[in-house]
């Protein structure tokens, strides 16, 4: 067997050993192993999740051979859960795989406590009634739930969990934490040891841009009543001031300083997202608070006192043109400040834990350190119960989506999928499922959709005839190409949720295979 580190080499570069360890500890339950479920689970088995349990009560039929690569002719008539389980086990022998030959709907009705043993449940191809019941069960047991569904050329993915806090949100673009707009005393003192007016040409072109900007900002503030550039004109003048210090045309470090000059003008203090988190009522901690909120409470105190309105320093600096000696010393200056901030935070966390009668050492140094490093990028996601969204979606939003040129199709498909479930509850079949009843099904689906819109307070909103015809044409079929895409999206969200890295999507994700569009509806 391949050494795990080698086996998962490429993905470790994305979510690191900590993320991989979380995956290997996770136990995942899949409900229904048609193509959508099988494709979702295939990605997770290849990624190395700890264990999987497949729940499906159906037998493999000839029709399954056309849309699911994980069953073949020899499987016809056998348990679908068993066949898919055996196939997935072959993909990765490090994963513990088992199956239960039972219909998920029956399990939801008769054995709700079954689900509490899992880290996360992936529910595929469930109709609305079962979604609502399962969501309540998982919410009470505090189990992460993700719904995935393929229906003809459309797909839906929806996460449901009371609260999901992310420390390592890993945004694509984020401003380096350099504090050029408000240098701390040691950084100022370090900048003072460097002379920008040196006649040594080599030294001049190897002064790191951080030092250039700290000194230039100070020089500017001294002649502008202690204020940094704020208007467009002032920012241009500031760049010109940097340019005037160049003694040769090819000084890369000065070009870098001019390009990075906006970092001097960036607003001081914390951003609106973080402000919202520290103002959240959960930051008033008690003995039931999660580690995350205890650290947020410590952060709130830190910002108000030692931080002087700022978060703990991250402590890393980007690459830049510089002499090795200056770069290393600059790095040390940043690391020392980050370490000092971390020690203050660590003490505050310990004091808070003591105050709420918890073991002061119960939050590890490594976790506090990671929290400090990512303090500016924290994220908290909360999801409505599916039942709440279904019964009372944010009505103005829904109305807006339905009439919006860009979102109209996604919203229409969302309503029609729900109407198809109502239709199935009334007529014991999905619209267009049987030949010869198409015209009747189209008018029935239309009146079901109109009834649903009225119930949701959107009377007057119309759904295009073409979309209604299309929905009936689908006949509730599960196409492999759509299932593979929906499974890819769902498994990516599962990985975000389990590793607690990157920000999972909010709202209800709709894939519209007609126009090849993916959109989120925030209802």
TrEMBL record:
Keywords: Nucleotide-binding, Nucleus, Ubl conjugation pathway. It is found in: Nucleus. Gene3D superfamilies: NAD(P)-binding Rossmann-like Domain. It comes from the Eukaryota. Coiled coil: none annotated. The keyword Manganese does not apply. The keyword Nucleus applies. Residues 8-501 form the THIF-type NAD/FAD binding fold domain. One of its GO terms (cellular component) is cytoplasm. One of its GO terms (biological process) is protein neddylation. InterPro entries: APP-BP1, ThiF/MoeB/HesA, ThiF_NAD_FAD-bd, Ubiquitin-activating_enz. Regulatory subunit of the dimeric E1 enzyme. E1 activates RUB1/NEDD8 by first adenylating its C-terminal glycine residue with ATP, thereafter linking this residue to the side chain of the catalytic cysteine, yielding a RUB1-ECR1 thioester and free AMP. E1 finally transfers RUB1 to the catalytic cysteine of RCE1. This is NEDD8-activating enzyme E1 regulatory subunit. It comes from Solanum pinnatisectum.
């Amino acid at each position: 067997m391949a050494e795990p580190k080698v086996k998962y080499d490429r993905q470790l570069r994305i979510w690191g050993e900590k993320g991989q360890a979380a995956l290997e500890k996770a136990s995942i339950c899949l409900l229904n192993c048609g193509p959508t479920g099988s494709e979702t689970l295939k990605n997770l088995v290849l990624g190395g999740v700890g264990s999987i349990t497949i729940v499906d009560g159906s037998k493999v039929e000839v029709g399954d051979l056309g849309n699911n690569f994980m069953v073949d002719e020899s499987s016809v008539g056998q348990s679908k859960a068993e066949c898919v389980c055996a196939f997935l086990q072959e993909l990765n022998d490090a994963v513990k795989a088992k199956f239960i030959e039972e219909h998920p709907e029956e399990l939801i009705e008769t054995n709700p406590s079954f689900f509490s043993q899992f880290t996360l449940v992936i529910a595929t191809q469930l109709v609305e009634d079962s979604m609502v019941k399962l969501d309540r069960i998982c919410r009470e047991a505090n189990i992460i739930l993700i719904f995935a569904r393929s229906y003809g050329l459309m797909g839906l993915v929806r996460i449901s969990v009371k609260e999901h806090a992310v420390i390592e949100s890993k945004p694509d673009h984020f401003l380096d934490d350099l504090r050029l707009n408000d240098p701390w005393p040691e950084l100022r003192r370090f900048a003072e040891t460097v002379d920008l007016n040196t006649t040594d040409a080599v030294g001049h072109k190897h002064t790191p841009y951080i030092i250039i900007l700290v000194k230039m900002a100070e020089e500017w503030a001294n002649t502008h009543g202690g204020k940094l550039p704020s208007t467009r004109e002032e920012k241009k003048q500031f760049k010109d001031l940097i340019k005037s210090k160049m003694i040769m045309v090819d000084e890369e470090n000065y070009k870098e300083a001019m390009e990075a000059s906006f970092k001097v003008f960036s607003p001081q203090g914390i951003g609106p997202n973080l402000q919202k988190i520290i103002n959240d009522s959960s930051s008033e901690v008690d003995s039931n608070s999660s580690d995350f909120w205890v650290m947020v409470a410590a952060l709130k105190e830190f910002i108000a006192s030692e931080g002087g309105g700022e978060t703990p320093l991250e402590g890393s600096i980007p690459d830049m043109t510089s002499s090795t000696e200056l770069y290393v010393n600059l790095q040390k200056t940043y690391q020392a400040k980050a370490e000092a901030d971390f020690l203050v935070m660590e003490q505050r966390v310990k004091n808070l834990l003591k105050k709420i009668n918890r073991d002061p050492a119960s939050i590890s140094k490594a976790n506090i350190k990671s929290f400090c490093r990512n303090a500016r990028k924290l994220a908290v996601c909360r999801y409505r119960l599916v039942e709440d969204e279904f019964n009372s979606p944010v009505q103005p939003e829904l109305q807006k989506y339905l009439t919006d040129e860009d979102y109209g199709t996604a919203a229409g498909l969302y309503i029609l999928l729900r109407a198809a479930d109502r239709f199935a509850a009334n007529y014991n079949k999905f619209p267009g499922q049987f030949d010869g009843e198409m015209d009747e099904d189209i008018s029935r689906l239309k009146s079901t959709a109109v009834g649903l819109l009225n119930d949701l307070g959107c009377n007057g909103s119309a759904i295009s005839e073409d979309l209604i015809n299309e929905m009936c044409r689908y006949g509730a079929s599960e196409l492999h190409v759509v299932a593979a895409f929906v499974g890819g999206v769902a498994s990516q969200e599962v990985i975000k949720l389990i590793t607690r890295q990157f920000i999972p999507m909010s709202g209800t994700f709709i894939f519209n295979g007609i126009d090849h569009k993916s959109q989120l509806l925030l209802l």
